[in-house]
Specification:
The complex is a heterodimer of chains A (about 220) and B (about 230). Chain A is mostly helical. Helices cover about 85% and strands about 0% of the residues of chain A. Chain B has one domain: MetI-like fold (Orthogonal Bundle), CATH 1.10.3720.10. The longest helix of chain B is centred in the N-terminal third of the chain and has 40 residues. The chains are: A mainly alpha (about 220), B mainly alpha (about 230). Chains A and B meet through α1, α3, α4, α8 and α9 of A and α1, α3, α4, α5 and α8 of B.
């Protein structure tokens, strides 16, 4: 047991790599705070285009969403980061990651918001318009709040996925948590940093996963 | 301005495409067999866990919930890296294929356990009581009455989750598994040309678009809400 602790959870190494991993964790948090709002906004836009658009717009939206749901996000990231330089376009790590995440997460959030918008009865829009609100006011004050409430568990679940997804940025050596953990591992010849990073992800995400689980099972009991 | 000939030369270069096609085809075989293996073990283990959970044995359920929560909270890439780079320190080594398969199967098992469990919970209590009162044992009531009804509700969320996790086979490239992405990006840097990358991207589209469209169809036919 002592030996196992020394290999996977060596106190000396924890002390040594702690600041470096904390730095990585901060980058992970910053990255999440950057890409989650962008993904939410992009997803809402996509869903509104679907909801309000003509048949042709709807087909385009579905095409967009399906393409980016088919691409593994890592493939997209590598395509952007290593492909664009062939067009003489130099792109920084952070912009490559941001572009990749917006394309990927906006299509997932888009599907969630679309389901949300569809869950609001038609009469709500008609009533809102009849009370004198214009289209964007009706959407903003009447339709969107209700649809967000209806798909809240899915929105949270997708947000957990986005935070987990930020670990892909390590592949292009953006100094986030997983990247720093791997660097620390190869410098110390010890897996402790990776185990520590995994624990950090757990600390952040477990409460959200637990909350989700409670929300999901609660709603299914009601039925 | 982007020069169109240059664009074709570096992204859609037929000569290079021809050269790397056999290699990429090998990658496709790995990606597909890995994907099928993950779907099979992930969903099977998830189903088994949910069946065990329905027996309501406190200690075992606690264990299942903790396992599921951990596998839902950790990024799959972190799991793959743990298995591939950390386990060898205690003399357990897994190949790139095994560690990717194991990690993704765990993640899919966790998510599908939750989906199956939600499905089982959603069946009204009266169904259990009716089944038991006809003389079925609790195990038979589960297998013949509850599960068939629950499964119908699980098809749509299970499909979309299985697609999302199977796409994670591309993560295997990080531990040098020779699947499509790994081969495409190494070929691309070897050739100094982006064509293999584009080929790889198309391969993923061709593999996954039918599943995504199938998922859309399933969603409209087996919806939770209806």
């Amino acid at each position: 047991m002592q030996e196992l602790i020394n290999v996977f959870f060596s106190p000396e190494i924890i002390v040594k790599v702690w600041p470096f991993l904390l730095q990585g964790l901060m980058t992970t948090v910053e990255l999440s705070l950057l890409v989650i709002p962008m993904g939410l906004l992009g997803g809402l836009t996509v869903a509104l285009f679907y909801n309000q658009g003509s048949k042709f717009t709807r087909a385009l939206v579905i095409l967009y969403v399906d393409i980016f749901r088919s691409f593994p996000p890592l493939v997209l990231l590598i395509l952007i980061y290593f492909g664009l330089p062939f067009l003489q376009i130099e792109i920084s790590k952070i912009s490559a990651v941001a572009v990749c995440f917006i394309l990927n997460t906006s299509s997932y959030y888009g599907e969630v918001f679309r389901a949300g918008l569809e869950s609001v009865p038609k009469g709500q829009m008609e009533a809102a318009r009849a009370s004198g609100l214009n289209l964007s006011q009706s959407l903003l004050y009447v339709i969107i709040p209700q649809s967000v409430r209806n798909v809240l568990p899915e929105l949270i679940s997708n947000t957990v996925e986005v935070i987990k997804l930020t670990s892909l940025a390590s592949v292009v050596a953006l100094p986030e948590l997983l990247n720093n953990a791997r660097q620390a591992q190869s410098l110390t010849y010890n897996p402790t940093p990776i185990v520590l990073a995994a624990l950090m992800y757990l600390v952040i995400l477990w409460p959200m996963v637990r909350l989700l689980s409670l929300m999901e099972h609660k709603s299914s009991h009601v039925k | 301005m982007i020069d169109i000939d240059r664009l074709i030369f570096s992204f859609f270069n037929l000569k290079i495409a021809e050269k790397y096609l056999p290699l990429i085809a090998e990658g496709v075989a790995t990606t597909i067999s890995l994907g099928l293996a993950v779907i099979f073990t992930g969903i099977l283990v998830g189903l088994l866990l949910s069946l065990v959970r329905s027996q309501q044995i406190k200690f075992i359920n606690l264990f299942i919930i903790i396992l599921v929560d951990i596998c839902r909270s950790l990024p799959p890439l972190v799991l793959i890296i743990l298995f591939y780079f950390a386990l060898p320190y205690v003399q357990i080594s897994m190949s790139a294929f095994t560690s990717t398969w194991f990690a993704l199967s765990l993640v899919l098992a966790a998510f599908s356990e939750e989906i199956f469990w939600a499905g089982i919970l959603s069946i009204p209590k009266g169904q259990w009581e009716a089944a038991r009162s006809t003389g079925l044992s609790s195990w038979r009531a589960l297998m013949y009455v509850i599960l068939p009804q629950a499964l119908k509700l699980t098809v749509a969320p299970l499909t979309s989750r299985a697609i999302a996790i199977t796409k994670g086979t591309a993560l295997g490239s990080v531990v040098a598994l020779h699947e499509v992405l790994n081969i495409a990006s190494s070929s691309s840097s070897e050739a100094g040309n982006a064509t293999p990358l584009i080929m790889g991207a198309f391969v993923y589209l061709i593999i996954f678009i039918p599943f995504v469209m199938f998922g859309r169809w399933v969603e409209s036919h087996f919806s939770w809400k209806r």
